[in-house]
TrEMBL record:
Family annotation (NCBIfam families): GntG_guanitoxin
UniProt xrefs under Pfam families: Beta_elim_lyase
Cofactor(s) recorded in Swiss-Prot or TrEMBL: pyridoxal 5'-phosphate
Family of the protein in this entry: Belongs to the threonine aldolase family.
Residue ranges constituting the Aromatic amino acid beta-eliminating lyase/threonine aldolase domain according to the UniProt record: 72-361
Residues annotated with N6-(pyridoxal phosphate)lysine modification: 268
SUPFAM superfamilies reported in the protein's UniProt record: PLP-dependent transferases
Protein name according to UniProt: Putative L-allo-threonine aldolase
Keyword Lyase: yes
């Protein structure tokens, strides 16, 4: 189904109005919707009278708020772009970014460098591309190694890119506290040596948040000081650093001054359709641009990506340095609510809820991931096992349905006694 939208100058108000006109009750009874001046009385909008000189755009219903992910709690990558993003795309410049001639992209890269307190930034197509390009550019030649948490996305879910692109070995470092890496963990596993039998650690790669858990700023500072004192580069997979910052763990600039390079995703909780930003020093990013080209990541009309990403940052992360005015904090509150719903019924969680992820300890309750998926489906909410991820497009009704799922799983469903694994999924 599609909708006709009349747009004049809409970025700021489109989102607000879309939440009115695209509400389930409205959409079920209306065929055409008219959006125009923010000041226009809602009655006029409801009467579907197009404004003078308005431009008519027909959009698929999936662009309207809250979007197709309203009952999907499997992951935040499932979020969908908003009408405001579509509007920004419609108004972007369309110059060539391989030639670095696109004003929207150039301004956005400058905006991101300023926002993060880094010298430069580079738009990339995905978080994976950002991580792998950064590692390739920080490393020189083998033998060399990257030290990281064993659950790190860079080794776990990036198709072996550290090996194929950088020819680096990986040194796993397991946090003694079971949550996040500390300097003591790093010192235990780092390899600083000229002994020709070893592969020296050249990069420490942290992920923050990792599985929704925050690495505290103080700890990152300690690790960074140690790394710098020993000539080791620091990379951050900050796909969800936005979440840590919105939770009040520290500002973007506080965190990012501890790293040489960092990538941050726009297409997770921030809901852009595509893209990540890589930030760091100019010299490193010049090399990153080169590597990006070599793997087919040179983008032509990049304004299409940059314009939507900017809306994602300004509206969904928020305009304040710690996500003030954005939409992430509310998702953390909802995650806490979900945790409470589970705990109140006798369940336990395997990790603390610090941001937007809730980890149900299914084995403890004798429940399988398959049961969770099945009961979720029956109640009309998409789940994939013990990990529940909240994003800003999740509607309140989804939590009501989830409560019914918990009720059934913990009270009346037949429990299994077998060994149960945490939900394994391709959704990250
Ligand atoms: C922590 C983390 N880093 C990197 C990525 C990679 O992002 P992309 O899917 O855009 O390549 C993901 C994807 O979910 C992720 O969760």
């Amino acid at each position: 189904m599609s909708k006709t939208v009349y747009c004049q100058k809409p970025e700021a108000y489109l989102d607000t109005l879309s939440s009115v006109v695209c509400s389930p009750s409205f959409s079920s009874t209306s065929f055409h919707y008219t959006l125009y001046s923010f000041m226009l009385p809602i009655q006029l909008i409801m009467a579907n009278i197009p404004p003078p000189q308005a431009q008519q755009v027909t959009v698929a219903e999936s662009w309207c708020s809250p979007g197709p992910a309203a009952y999907d709690l499997r992951t935040d990558t499932i979020t969908t772009p908003t009408l405001a993003m579509l509007q920004a795309i419609a108004q972007t410049t369309l110059m060539d970014d391989v030639y670095q001639e696109d004003p929207t992209t150039n301004e956005f890269e400058k905006f991101m460098a300023d926002l993060t307190g880094k010298e430069d930034s580079l738009l990339v197509l995905s978080g994976t591309m950002g991580n792998q390009i950064a590692l390739r550019s920080l490393l020189t030649q083998p033998p060399h190694a990257v030290l990281c948490h064993p659950r790190s996305h860079i080794v776990h879910s990036e198709a072996g890119g550290v090996a194929t692109l950088s020819q680096a070995s990986v040194q796993f470092c397991i946090p003694a506290n079971g949550r996040y890496l500390t300097l003591e963990d790093i010192k235990r596993d780092v390899v600083i040596s000229n002994n020709i039998h070893v592969s020296p650690t050249r990069v420490i790669s942290l992920e923050n948040t990792l599985a929704g858990v925050i690495t505290p700023l103080e700890e990152v500072r300690r690790i960074s000081q140690f790394a710098r004192a020993n000539g080791i580069k620091m990379h951050l997979d900050g796909a969800r650093l936005w979440e840590a910052v919105a939770a009040g763990a520290g500002s973007l600039t506080d965190y990012l001054e501890c790293f040489d390079t960092a990538q941050m995703c726009f297409s997770k909780g921030l809901a852009a359709p595509i893209g990540s930003i890589l930030v760091g020093p100019k010299t490193i990013l010049e090399h990153c641009r080169w590597v990006r080209k070599s793997i087919g990541g040179g983008i032509r009309q990049a304004g299409i990506i940059a314009s939507a990403a900017r809306v994602a940052v300004e509206q969904n992360f928020g305009r304040g340095p710690s996500g003030e005015g954005g939409r992430l904090r509310d998702t953390h509150t909802k995650a806490k609510q979900i945790e409470k719903m589970w705990l109140d019924r006798g369940g336990i969680t395997s990790r603390p809820v610090e941001t937007n992820m809730v980890w149900l300890d299914l084995p403890h309750s004798g429940i399988t991931a398959d049961q969770v998926v099945r009961v979720g489906k029956e109640e009309g909410v998409k789940l994939m096992g013990g990990r529940i991820v909240v994003h800003h497009q999740v509607v309140d009704e989804a939590l009501v349905r989830l409560e019914r799922v918990f009720e059934r799983l913990l009270a009346s469903e037949k429990k299994t006694n077998g060994v149960v694994h945490e939900g394994q999924s391709v959704y990250r």
